[in-house]
Design brief:
- It is built from four helices and no strands.
- By secondary structure, it is mostly helical.
- The protein has one domain: Hemerythrin-like (Four Helix Bundle (Hemerythrin (Met), subunit A), Up-down Bundle), CATH 1.20.120.
- Helix 1 packs antiparallel against helix 2, helix 1 runs antiparallel to helix 4 and helix 2 runs antiparallel to helix 3.
- The longest helix has 28 residues.
- It is globular and about 45 Å long.
Length: 129
């Protein structure tokens, strides 16, 4: 069973963004599956997640600029805060002897679902019909 599910209701109708959202959900599911594995395996997957976040946030923000979306500034700030939070956690995890924290997975899931429903969903109106 997936930790976080992608469904058709999550589609925005913007193929590049939809594809990246689905990939991010898959990466988080992979990370969840690896949570009890070695620090090396977890770190490798977490680096993939951070890289995909950066790529995806740029894609979304570029899309918003091209479509003159008024909420770009607040949306971008939310992206920056999320990237900072999850990057800081990773740095702390890397330098500690502590096991991977399940709470960070729950935080990721909550943030992704809320951001998709409350922020990204508004981009549907800009999808090419």
């Amino acid at each position: 069973m997936s930790f976080i599910k992608w469904s058709s209701k999550d589609k925005l109708g913007i193929s590049s963004i939809d594809k990246q959202h689905k990939e991010i959900y898959e990466i988080v599911n992979n990370l969840h599956d690896l949570k009890d594995e070695s620090k090396t395996k977890i770190s490798k997957q977490y680096k993939v997640l951070l890289s995909k976040f950066k790529e995806h946030f740029e894609t979304e923000e570029d899309f918003m600029k091209k479509n003159n979306v008024l909420s770009l500034f607040s949306h971008k700030l939310e992206h920056e805060r999320a990237l900072a939070k999850y990057s800081t956690y990773f740095e702390q995890y890397q330098s500690s002897k502590e096991p991977f924290d399940d709470e960070i997975l729950q935080s990721l899931k909550t943030w992704l679902v809320n951001h998709a429903e409350m922020k990204d969903n508004k981009l549907k109106q800009y999808a090419k019909k």
